[in-house]
Design brief:
The chain has helices spanning 8-23, 106-116, 141-156, 163-178, 185-192, 231-249, 260-265, 272-296, 300-316, 323-333, 361-371; strands at residues 30-41, 51-67, 72-77, 87-91, 125-131, 197-202, 207-212, 218-228, 338-344, 349-357, 377-381, 388-389. The chain is an alpha+beta fold and 393 residues long. Helix 3 (141-156) crosses helix 4 and helix 4 (163-178) packs antiparallel against helix 5. 48% of the residues are buried. Bound molecules: adenosine-5'-diphosphate and magnesium ion. Residues 61, 77, 79, 82, 105-106, 109, 129, 131, 135-142, 145 line the site of adenosine-5'-diphosphate (ADP).
C-alpha cells in the first residue's frame, strides 16, 4: 500500500557503503541529515510576505563524508534519479569559478551552498549524498539537499550557528545556483522543524513559532499525483507578477498588508485575473493564522475545513490546481475519518496533503487509489525533526 521508505540509519548505511566503494579508506566520520517538508496550509503566501504552516517530514537527505588535507572536493550522489554524472570533482583553490553553476544540475545546489556558506573558507572534503525525498515531487528535495549540505559544512568548519541565517544562505543558493526564485519556507522548516510540531512562519519578519501536532490519533498522508504539468515553470513567475501588480495598485509593499475591503474597492482598477489572485492570497493568509489557532485547540475538523477552502481557492481563484490534484482531494474528502485535504506546493501536479484519523489510513489510501485515474505514491507521515548532525555508532 504505502511504499516503505528507508529510515535515517538505513540511508546512512547506504551512503557509507557507497563512500567505501568510491573512495575506499576509512569510514567517513561525519553524517548529517535534513528533512523534506510538506506545507499544511498557506500556499503561494510566502512571496507575498504572509504566513505558511509547513512541517518537516520523516523523508530526509543524508550527507556522509570526511575532510581531506587539501582543497579538493569530491561529491557523489547515490540518488538514481539525479542527472548524470553522479560524481563531481573540483578544487576550492583559485578564483571561485569552480563554484559557478553548470552540469550536472544537481551539483549546483551544493556549489550554491558552498558559495553562500557563512564561515568561509571550508577545507577540502569527500562526501556522499543519499535521500528518501522524491526528487521534483514537491516535497522539497532541493531545500533538503541544500540544508543537509550546509549542516555537513558546519561539521567541518562551524559557523556562528544562527539558524535563520543558515536558512537564508540556503535560499540564496537556490536563487543564484538553481535559478529558482523560491520563498524562504522550504529552507526555514528544513532547518527549524521539530518532531511533533508544525511551524508557523511569518515570511515577512522571518519569525517562526512551533505549533504542537503530536496527537497519536492523527496522521498526515501525502499523496504524490506523479504528474507534473509543464505549466508550472511559466505560471509561477506570472502569479508572482500579478501579486506585485495587485499590491502596487493597492499602494502596499505586499499583499500581506492588504485587506479584502481594500481589494474590493480597487476592483475596477485591476484586471479580473489579478483580482482573483489577490483574493486568494489575502484570504489564504488569514486562513493560515486561523488554521494554526485551530491546531493549538485540537480543532481538527475546523483545520480540515480550512484545508478544503484553501484547495478550492487555489483551484478557482489562483488557478494552480489540475484535474489530478482535484481528483485526489475529492477522493480523500469522501472517506470517513478524513478531516481535510488539499493540494500542496506550487501546483500543476505534485502532491496533496490530507489530515486524517490514524485508524482511517488504510481505507483512505485504498479509496484514493481506486478513485484516482493515475498511479499515486503515498507517504504516511507525522511531523519530524529539522536538520541535525547524526552520531555514528
Ligand atoms: P523538489 O524540491 O520539489 O523536490 P526541485 O525541482 O526544486 O524539486 O528540486 C529537485 C532537484 O534537486 C533535483 O532535480 C536535483 O537536481 C536536486 N536534488 C535533490 N535531492 C538530490 C539528491 N539526493 N541528489 C542529487 N540531486 C538532488
Ligand atoms: Mg524545490
Amino acid at each position: 500500500m504505502a511504499g516503505s521508505v528507508p529510515g535515517v540509519s538505513e540511508l546512512v548505511a547506504d551512503a557509507r557503503r557507497v563512500f567505501g566503494q568510491v573512495f575506499g579508506g576509512e569510514a567517513p566520520p561525519v553524517a548529517v541529515c535534513a528533512p523534506g517538508r510538506v506545507n499544511l496550509i498557506g500556499e503561494h503566501t510566502d512571496y507575498n510576505q504572509g504566513f505558511v504552516l509547513p512541517m518537516a517530514l520523516p523523508l530526509v537527505t543524508v550527507v556522509v563524508g570526511s575532510q581531506t588535507s587539501g582543497q579538493d572536493v569530491s561529491i557523489v550522489t547515490a540518488t538514481e534519479d539525479a542527472d548524470e554524472p553522479r560524481r563531481v570533482d573540483f578544487s576550492l583553490a583559485g578564483d571561485g569559478s569552480a563554484l559557478s553553476p553548470g552540469l550536472p544540475r544537481w551539483a549546483n545546489y551544493v556549489k550554491g551552498v558552498l558559495q553562500h556558506y557563512r564561515a568561509p573558507p571550508v577545507p577540502g572534503f569527500r562526501a556522499v549524498i543519499a535521500s528518501s525525498v522524491p526528487l521534483g515531487g514537491g516535497l522539497s528535495s532541493s531545500a533538503s539537499l541544500e540544508v543537509a549540505f550546509y549542516t555537513f559544512l558546519q561539521q567541518l568548519k562551524p559557523d556562528d550557528g544562527d539558524k535563520v541565517s543558515k536558512a537564508v544562505a540556503c535560499q540564496q543558493a537556490e536563487h543564484t545556483h538553481a535559478g529558482v526564485p523560491c520563498g524562504i519556507m522550504d529552507q526555514f522548516v528544513c532547518v527549524l522543524g521539530r518532531e511533533g510540531h508544525a511551524l508557523l512562519i511569518d515570511c515577512r519578519s522571518l519569525q517562526a513559532s512551533l505549533v504542537p501536532l503530536a496527537d497519536p490519533h492523527l496522521l498526515i498522508l501525502i499523496t504524490n499525483s506523479n504528474v507534473k504539468h509543464s505549466l508550472s515553470g511559466s505560471e509561477y513567475p506570472s502569479r508572482r507578477r500579478q501579486c506585485e501588480e495587485a499590491a502596487s495598485v493597492l499602494g502596499r509593499d505586499s499583499l500581506r498588508d492588504a485587506t479584502m475591503e481594500e481589494l474590493d474597492e480597487a476592483r475596477g482598477r485591476l484586471d479580473e485575473a489579478t483580482y482573483r489572485r489577490a483574493r486568494h492570497v489575502i484570504a489564504e493568509i488569514q486562513r493560515t493564522l486561523q488554521a494554526a489557532e485551530a491546531l493549538k485547540r485540537g480543532a481538527y475538523r475546523e483545520f480540515g475545513k480550512l484545508m478544503v477552502e484553501s484547495h478550492n481557492s487555489l483551484r478557482d481563484l489562483y488557478e494552480v490546481s489540475c484535474r489530478e490534484l482535484d481528483e485526489l482531494v475529492s477522493a480523500a474528502a469522501e472517506v470517513e475519518g478524513v478531516f481535510g485535504s488539499r493540494m500542496t506546493g506550487g501546483g500543476f501536479g505534485g502532491c496533496t496533503v490530507t489530515l486524517l484519523q490514524a485508524h482511517a489510513i488504510d481505507r483512505t489510501i485504498l479509496h484514493m487509489q481506486e478513485r484516482y485515474s493515475g498511479t499515486p505514491t503515498f507517504y504516511v507521515t507525522t511531523p519530524s525533526a529539522g536538520a541535525r548532525a547524526l552520531t555514528l555508532s
